[in-house]
C-alpha cells in the first residue's frame, strides 16, 4: 500500500495542493485520479459516478501534466502541439502566447531549455478543454516570472469553473487552495 486514509472533495473553481516528502505517493495519487492506476480500497467519484467505471469520461475531463514533458525532440514546439490542437480544435498560437513561448514556435524541442520544455508541456494543458488539471510539480524548471504567470493562468482557469489538483515541493501561486499532506506508508517499492 502506498497511501491510506486519503479523503478530499473538490468543487467547481476549487484547487488542491498535494504535499509530502519524496515517495509519499503524490504522483501515484495523481495517476489514480487520472484513471491510470487502480486502487486497492476506497472509491473516487465524479458527480457520484465511480471514475473506474467511467474511465473514458474521466480521461476526457482531465488534462495531465506529468514529470516528463513528453516532447518529440525532432519536432518543433508547434509540431509537438499539433495533434492535441487538431483533436480539440484549439489555437496553438494563443496557447503559446499565454505561456510566453510563441517566439520559439519553430524551434525543435531538442534545442529547448528545461524551462522552455516545461512551458511547452504547459501549453499542451491549455490546448485541451478540460475541467480538471492534474499537475505534477508544474513549476519545476520555471523562472520566477513564469511561476507568477502560472498564478494568473491558474486563476483564469478556476475563475471559469476549472479545478486544479497539483503536487509541489515549493510554494505555488494558487490562492485559497485546499492542502492534502501525504505521508509515506511503505518503505520498499514493489512493482505496481
Ligand atoms: N511503477 C512503480 N512501481 C513500483 N513502485 C513505484 C512505481 N512508481 C512509484 N513507485 C513507488 O511508490 C511510492 C510513491 O511514489 P510517487 O512517485 O508517487 O511519490 P511522490 O510523492 O510523487 O515522490 P516525489 O516527491 O519524489 O516526486 C515510492 O515509494 C515509489 O518508489
UniProtKB/TrEMBL annotation:
It holds the Pfam family ABC_tran. Keywords: ATP-binding, Cytochrome c-type biogenesis, Membrane, Nucleotide-binding, Translocase, Transport. GO terms for molecular function: ATP binding; ATP hydrolysis activity; transmembrane transporter activity. Residues 1-192 form the ABC transporter domain. SUPFAM superfamilies: P-loop containing nucleoside triphosphate hydrolases. The keyword ATP-binding applies. GO terms for biological process: cytochrome complex assembly. Coiled coil: none annotated. InterPro entries: AAA+_ATPase, ABC_transporter-like_ATP-bd, ABC_transptr_haem_export_CcmA, P-loop_NTPase. This is Heme exporter ATP-binding protein A. It comes from Commensalibacter papalotli. The lineage of its organism: Bacteria, Pseudomonadati, Pseudomonadota, Alphaproteobacteria, Acetobacterales.
Amino acid at each position: 500500500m502506498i497511501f491510506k486514509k486519503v479523503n478530499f472533495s473538490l468543487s467547481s473553481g476549487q484547487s488542491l495542493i498535494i504535499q509530502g516528502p519524496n515517495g509519499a505517493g503524490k504522483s501515484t495519487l495523481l495517476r489514480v485520479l487520472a484513471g491510470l492506476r487502480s486502487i486497492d480500497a476506497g472509491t473516487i467519484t465524479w458527480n457520484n459516478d465511480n471514475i473506474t467505471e467511467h474511465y473514458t469520461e474521466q480521461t476526457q475531463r482531465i488534462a495531465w501534466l506529468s514529470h516528463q514533458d513528453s516532447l518529440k525532440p525532432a519536432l518543433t514546439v508547434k509540431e509537438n502541439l499539433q495533434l492535441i490542437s487538431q483533436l480539440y480544435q484549439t489555437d496553438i498560437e494563443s496557447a503559446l502566447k499565454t505561456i510566453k513561448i510563441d517566439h520559439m514556435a519553430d524551434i525543435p524541442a531538442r534545442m529547448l531549455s528545461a524551462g522552455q520544455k516545461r512551458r511547452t508541456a504547459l501549453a499542451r494543458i491549455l490546448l485541451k478543454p478540460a475541467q480538471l488539471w492534474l499537475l505534477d510539480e508544474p513549476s519545476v524548471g520555471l523562472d520566477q516570472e513564469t511561476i507568477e504567470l502560472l498564478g494568473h493562468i491558474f486563476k483564469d482557469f478556476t475563475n471559469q469553473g476549472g479545478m486544479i489538483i497539483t503536487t509541489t515541493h515549493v510554494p505555488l501561486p494558487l490562492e485559497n487552495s485546499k492542502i492534502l499532506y501525504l505521508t509515506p506508508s511503505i518503505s520498499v517499492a514493489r512493482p505496481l
